[in-house]
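cron nightly-structures :: item 1 of 1
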Amino acid sequence: MRAVKAAGRVALLAALLGAFVLNAEHGSAVPPGENGKIAFASARNGNFEIYAVNPDATGLQRLTTDPGTDSDPAWSADGTRIAFQSTRDQNDEIYLMGADGSGQTRLTTSAGNDQNATWSPGGRSLAFLSTRDGDSEIFVMNEDGTGQSQLTTNTVADATPAWSPDGTKIAFRSERDGNSEIYTMNVDGTLATRLTAHAAADVSPSWSPDGQKIAFATDRDGNFEIYVMNADGSGQARLTRNLDTDLDPAWSPDGRYIAFTTNRDGNNEIYVMNADGSAPTRITTSAFEDTTPDWQWLRTIPPAPSPLTNARAVVRWKESVLRGTLVVRGVVPGLSRIQLALRRGKRIYLARGLVIPQGPFTRRLALPRDLLPGPYALAVTAVGSPTQLSPQTLPVDVVAPPEGVVSEAWASTNLGGPSMERVPATHGIVWAHFRFAALPRAGRVLTTQWYVNGKPPPSRPKVKRPRGLVIAFAEPGVEGDPLPRGRYECVLRAGNVVVKRVSVRVL
């Protein structure tokens, strides 16, 4: 079995009895990516089988169902396959299956035990341990089991290989210097380099996704704990601290966490901790042994780029009528087609399609003249674009001038009445209405001045302080008399600036 089942067996591991060590530890390597499921071996159904679970302990899934012992799962570099070892054919052999347990295929057929498979980053090769020559050595083979060749040739145990994320080295543990230490070697077996040098046993190497660090287990503190060191063996630091056994470290693809096996709760369970050793969290809660975790790599798919870097309205106002352009800037990685929609709420004020060549671009689009001041949203989508782009929404502010903006202006013979273009001469008063969409800035005083046939009457302009609606009226010199015929115009000013005009004819 791959689990450390009792204190007596832990003592055997510390004494480096080879047969037990081979069945109790696990090497791991994972390329950078997103965190997927954690595969592990469990005896919860009577014998060891391979399971997978989400890092938050949800979604437990059984992957193998064989009377033999299935253990030591190793995810492929692309997260779609799992290599594992099984005794279903009498002795331990390396098998391969899909991420969901389908397509289980035998890769090795030796008379010895083949164990501890580890994938190359490219997913085309596996390194593994084999006792086919009488003692445990590191071998390598193609992903389909062909081309098996021996990398190490010692008379002592070399075990638990772990392929580096850059594909250039294999970490492993070896007893070639009298006790178990962590080594690295080139992928052809040359230039073996010792990384640890301690009288205690150092086992279960596991590369960090960036290849800068190696986690491992050691009993140098009296019981097995998880340590970490730099890839050259320097900076060895302890991560776990308890009186029980912690083994089998396995990094998460994002490098933030380490899964491991521990019996701190009475039997072996899978835990996850931060990469600095903090916040250990229990993932499995079986009354039986759960061991040898390995973390699935999921492809990091960066979002498609957004086409626009910014958008702004460049406007000027003349008598509350907008004259301006929408200026959009961005950059696209290839020929692109985008749709722009300037909206407020559900109403669309501007819709335009653009075809843009590769690289940075600037486009100026005329804004509709009836646009009012305020915040708008520019929705950008790629419709039928040959280059994939992400949709985005950018804020666009249409800024009012200091004198404010009138949204409605009309004349009527009634206060608040309907708009009129012609007024019968029998009426004695006409009202001008100005409704503001944006009030003048503080300190801007408004005046209204009536003109009759282009000339101002003798009355003085009326001063107004608006609260959203300004109303002015024209009347003849004698109360109750009808208005003289002609063209009447009321001009609303802020200082010398004309804000809005209203005109009506008295017939």
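cron nightly-structures :: done
The chain has three domains: 7-298, 308-398, 405-506.
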